[in-house]
Write a structure and sequence with these properties.
Layout: H1 6-18, H2 23-33
Length: 69
Amino acid sequence: MPFKSQAQRRKFAELLVEGKISPETYEEWNRSTGGKKLPERVKPKRKTASAGPAKRKTTARPGRKAKRG
C-alpha cells in the first residue's frame, strides 16, 4: 500500500526507528509509493449533514415565572 502523504511517511519512519514496524514493511510501502510527489498532509473529508434536526436549548424567558402545578 503506498504512502498518501509526507506526514504519513515520516510517521512510518518514526515507527521503524522505534522498532514498532519491520524494515521490510517500511520498504514495501516505500517501493509501492515510488517517486511520487506527495502532499504534506491529506485533507480531511468534509462532514456530511447531521442525521437529525439540531436540538434547541430551552431557557426561561425573562420576566416570566415558571408554572407550578
